[in-house]
Amino acid sequence: MFNVEKQINYWQQGSEDDFETAGILIENKKYIHGLFFCHLSVEKIIKALIVKNIEDIPPKSHDLFYLMKIANIDLLTEHEQIIQILMKYQLEGRYPEYYPKQPDDKQIVYFFDRTKELLTWFRKKL
Q1: Helix, strand, or coil here: 126?
Q2: What's the whole-model pTM score?
Q3: pLDDT reported for residue 3
């Protein structure tokens, strides 16, 4: 039997753990890897919302826009930019021939802070 609450908790806890890991990586100037974990954290919170909204297991996809569509989430315009950025950096962790430009210190702080805001926005929907 599919336990909705257990699945939501699984994805939500994974999201929190991955965001913490992103912070550690970024603090240690592993920016590309940190952004990969930012993406992973957002991916998992969206998957928690998919479980909540459709009461089924989320698809095995890393495309945040696709996942939000399945979760029936309308993205705020202000969040579109960070989603696009995170999508770019998640590719590097999965496909070695893809090398995005490493952000500078100022950019990484901006990206990390926007990810945190986005996660807070998603968590309010759980």
Answers
A1: coil
A2: 0.93
A3: 96
Distances (CA, A) of 82 to 67, 78, 96, 97: 15, 8, 22, 23
Q: What are phi and psi of 47, to 5 degrees?
A: -65, -35
Three-state secondary structure string covering 24-47: HHHHCCCHHHHHHHHHHHHHHHHH
**How is residue 14 written in tokens?**
């994974």
> Residue 62 to residues 81, 88, 99, 109: CA-CA distances in angstroms?
17, 11, 18, 23
Q: How far apart are CA 84 and CA 64, in angstroms?
A: 9
Q: How would residue 92 be classed by pLDDT, with cut points 50, 70 and 90? A: low
Nearest-10 Cα torsion for 7, 12, 13, 14: 90
- Determine which of 15-19, 58-62, 76-80 has the lowest per-residue pLDDT on average: 76-80
Overall average pLDDT of the 52-81 stretch: 95
